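ATP-binding protein: structure tokens wanted.
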Amino acid sequence: MDRSISKQIKEDLKEKMVFIGGPRQVGKTTLAINFLPSKSKSDPAYLTWDQKSDRLLIQKEQLPAIYSLIVLDEIHKYRSWRNLVKGYFDRYFPKVNYLITGSARLDVYRHGGDSLHGRYYYHRLHPLSLKELNNNPTSADLAHLFKYGGFPEPFLKATERFLARWRRSRIESVFQEDIRELESVKDLSRLELLFETLPDRLCSPLSLNAIAKDLEVSRDSVALWIEIFDRMYLTFRISPYGGPKIRAVKKEQKLYFWDWTIANKDGPRFENLVALQLLKYC
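Answer:
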């Protein structure tokens, strides 16, 4: 299926490198390799830090320079990746360009210095939308998206058992890898406990004071933990609509999930789906 940002990425690659960020398992790698001739991970122009042979090439700074486009997947796990990419881009562009993918860690690490300033465009890949499924979406398309979510793998598998297992695995990976590596959190179990309570607070004004009281922690801790969830693409929040005077009186935001299937009731799940579809095109 064609992703809505594909056309813009193709145009941007004519001018600069392109970074693709977004939630874990939202389809960034698949989108990236579709820009390669073979559209396959076996393409020699596709390198991933998670593959030992590719990792050695990256560490030795021996990226191929004979292809018009090189896809670098998860390269931000390499400590010196910014200087490596900058050097190759400055030397070989426009003959060779680079498409770089990563999740929350890419968002953090790309801001770790200004060595890449002015050399790339950034795109965030969102879960699937109705228009990506069908130019003329039907009620059946909406029902399928509502039930199995907008992440490609469970959407295509279309079984509740797989969805449940996939969801647990994704959340565990975010906590055990992304949060543990990127955030200075002393008590990870408290974050996990907080996250488990959020489905019941979905689509309602989010009272940090009430959560703090329930968990017996400070309000500042709760505020920090919610911000971490936002940065890790677990949640996002929407502020009240209106002018400054309205927002001053009604400050509490609503919280939503990037994976709306976490919602345990149909009403909040549908509102979450709509909120994320709107976020995608804002």
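The first strand starts at residue 17 and ends at 21. The mean pLDDT is 92.

Cheers.
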